Amino acid sequence: LNTPRAVAALFDLLKRFNTLAASPVALAEVSAEAVAEASAAYRTLVTDVLGLRDEPRASAEDLLALALGFYQEAKSEKAYDKVDQIRTALKTQGIVIKDTKTGVEWAYSEE
Question: Is the pTM of this model over 0.70?
Answer without folding.
Answer: no
